[in-house]
Amino acid sequence: MKGKKTDLGSADCAIARSLDLIGDWWSLLIVRDAFQGKERFGEFQTGLGLAKNILSTRLKKLVSEGIFKMLPESEGSSRSRYVLTPKGERLCVLLAALWQWGEESCFRPGELKRTLVDVNSRKPLARLELRSQDGRRVGPRGFTLAKR
């Protein structure tokens, strides 16, 4: 059954459901490009070099799942823009975490020519880290799943 994707949409796991929604690399790269200011189908297609049918499928899913909303390019226009919703904008933490992990894990020293910076100060972002509700730093073995 090559190509058949397992439906994780009803799994009792927040990671599995998240991956079901935005887990393929094209969807995350589309969201990444939206954070960089791209809004139009052609901008995504040109920037990613993605086949139009695949891009169309991904954008339809991202719209149907509330990650993007479609707005007219201008009043009375039949062309659309894809704009991140608040739900989509919350993916910024995930993308920053992936970027920071990739900086440390996927490049040789000096190979990466860009880094995430604050738009106001132009200084690099602090490393993301997990914190408990009382503010303590939590390491990789310092958390687990528990029933609510």
Please describe what this structure looks like.
It is a single chain. The chain has about 150 residues and is mostly helical. It folds into two domains: about 15-85, Orthogonal Bundle (Arc Repressor Mutant, subunit A); about 90-140, no CATH class. The chain contains six helices and four strands. It has helices spanning about 15-20, 25-35, 40-50, 50-65, 85-90, 90-105, and strands spanning about 70, 80-85, 130, 135-140. The strands form two sheets. The protein has a two-stranded antiparallel ribbon. Strands 3-4 form a two-stranded antiparallel ribbon. The radius of gyration is 18 Å and the shape is globular. The mean pLDDT is about 90.
* Unreliable stretches covering 5 or more consecutive residues: none
Biggest sheet details: 2 strands, antiparallel
The coarse silhouette is: globular
Oligomer: single chain
Query: CATH topology of the largest domain, which one?
Result: Arc Repressor Mutant, subunit A
The percentage of residues in β strands lies in 5-15%
Q: Strand order of the main beta sheet, please?
A: 1-2
Task: Give me the secondary-structure topology.
Blueprint: H1 14-22, H2 25-35, H3 41-48, H4 52-64, E1 68-72, E2 80-84, H5 86-89, H6 92-105, E3 130-131, E4 137-138
Antiparallel strand pairs: 1-2, 3-4
